[in-house]
UniProtKB/TrEMBL annotation:
Species of the source: Pseudomonas umsongensis
Domain IclR-ED: 75-257
Pfam families according to UniProt: HTH_IclR (PF09339), IclR_C (PF01614)
Organism superkingdom: Bacteria
InterPro entries, sorted: GAF-like_dom_sf (IPR029016), HTH_MetabolicPath_Reg (IPR050707), Tscrpt_reg_IclR_C (IPR014757), Tscrpt_reg_IclR_N (IPR005471), WH-like_DNA-bd_sf (IPR036388), WH_DNA-bd_sf (IPR036390)
Domain (HTH iclR-type) ranges: 12-74
SMART domains xrefs: HTH_ICLR
Name of the protein in its database record: IclR family transcriptional regulator
Lineage start: Bacteria, Pseudomonadati, Pseudomonadota, Gammaproteobacteria, Pseudomonadales
Amino acid sequence: MEKPDSNGKQKVRSAEVGTDILKALAELSPSTSLSRLAEHVQMPASKVHRYLQALIASGFAEQNAATNHYGLGREALRVGLAALNSMDVLKVAALPLAELRDDLNETCFVAVWGNQGATVVHIEPAVRAVTVVTQLGSVLPLLSSSTGLVFGAYLPKRETVELREQELLSAGAHTLSDDQVYETLCGQIRGRGLHHVHGLLMPGVDALSAPVFNAVGHVVAVITIVGPTSLFHADENGPAAQRLLAATRAVSWRMGYEPPPITG
């Protein structure tokens, strides 16, 4: 019988400790004192100091000569950027989108913001005779779709202003032609974290949409549930809305997003 490789186990344990310290440096960024770091990871300061020296030597941590505080180093930044670049919202959202469709048996899709507006890039259709046809590559309107309105609420105004003007010109009279009304609606969407429409884009079809954020808090996609009004109830306080929010939060978390703390 082979003897346990105690040396190998020790190396694994050392790697785990080093990883814990790196995570703590990220959580306490941009910099922190040795005592605060040791308290955060619940380790003796002398032990944390030894690991910090190794991390500094490898470029994953650095120490400010003026304050003696510690922070993440250049190599940690490179690894973080590589991880961000590898994040593809379509890949990350694929499984949660399929699970959302399975839970609700309604058509669910992901849209991203393209050159012409909100563009459908992945669809999970409902598995039943009555379905809502949503085409891959469809461009949804900014002002008359829940998907477009969610994008409008979270994107910088400069990215949507031209499209809004075009839609208002072609639509003539529109309830959202007044800037104050539109801004109020956008604020309400941000406050709720989702938006629903009843037959606005297509008569007899309800839709419910919520945003997906990346690591820096920018909206990168919108996930939408659509279904016939007779079967799907796009209630913003209903179970479908809660399930949608759970899915978008899970995808956002996987994309590196950390929601701001609730204050007040």
